[in-house]
Amino acid sequence: MDHFQNTFHSGKTGTLVAIMFSLYTVGAMIGAPFAAILSDKFGRKVGMFWGGIIINVGMIIAATASTIAQFVVGRFVLGAGTSIMTVAAPAYAAEISPPHWRGRATGFYNCGWFGGSIPAAAVVYGCNLIDNDFSWRIPIILQAFACIIVMLGVWFIPESPRFLMANGREEEAVAFLAKYHGNGDRSSRLVQLEVEEMKENIRQDGIDKRPWDYRPFILTHNGRWRMAQVLMISIFGQFSGNGLGYFNTTIFEIIGVTSVEQQLAYNLLNSVLSAVGALSAVSLTDIMPRRKVLVWGTLACAAALATNSGLSAALDAQGDGIQESYAKGALASYFLFNIIFSFTYTPLQGVVPTEALETTTRAKGLAASNVIVYAIGFINQFAGPIALGNIQYRYIYVFVGWDVVETILWYLFGVESQGRTLEQLEWVYDQPNPVKASLKVDRVVVQADGRVTEKVTPETAA
What we know:
- By secondary structure, the protein is an all-alpha fold.
- The chain is built from 21 helices and two strands.
- 46% of the residues are buried.
């Protein structure tokens, strides 16, 4: 926006832009460990409330900025608040959901990103017509809207039953399950099953009571494999080419779209198309195999980016005499990449970590995930504008190759969790090869004492 540039003189690429936008992720990384402590000690609702307060403080600092230093501090505080919110909220979504809704609930939570990005793109498009500094200040101020709804709303919703059970409030946890999962019937089989699962998996002296203890993620076979799923979805979900979206204006310029109004309109269209891809996946989350979608979806992302980078290279070779068909092809392949990525990763970024982590490690695991997500976001936001300024479309080649590597890693190390019960997943992660075990988990049985054993079949007997 012209007035933003007139205030800060930052340009669109280069080190200054990198610093201005990447400090958000530094704040988020620093806030993540404290977010886990807050959520584990005081509850998911309190975590969401304080996350909203800190986000609003950051908004005020950034929206009133007239210097780069103040704007950067505002971005830093915004990042810290977002980190607290995004540790508490997905844990809450997973923990209040009945087993058969858990995939859709956590997947839909992650699609809430589009509930902000689409209005944000529309607001920026409209505010571009304002001929003063409010053209960029208003979009920043409106970030408070969703936070205020959350801050008010948390006092009208019940606390997570798993948090209650983990903190010795069993009666409140059972009352929640009976009301929301058992239609008021405390003797419902589903309620009884969930209560027994919670008692089995939640310890009153678990690591959620030891604020800085992350050892189980490193020292146990089960914990290492669970954390491997969190690491892969956290890194790949941020570094598969989707980070280019932070610099859509530069991407659009590379393929010949130079009008600010056109760029903002295409940015809005891109958000809408991505939302369609993500929401389509959400509707299928409870029946969609995680591992297969991640393998084939990531490979399709590589193909779409390869098409875009090839056409961008052709456009670069054409100089000023750009052929419209090439530009449209490059634009279409970029939109296609975002649709495929949103279908593949957006819901599963919320689902995979919550399915991989059990209750006493969930907040810490999500906090670790947040640190990784924002660390990769820092790389995207710091390196992106510099790389695009120096090598332009060739930066996309990096993601084409990396997406192929991701595909191989998902195939080798991705554990299938769709449709698995907590007992089955515990058995899966205890096996020498959890990937192989997860693909044959339909051949296991839960014994009367709660132990999970492999069912003897002609195939296994052989």
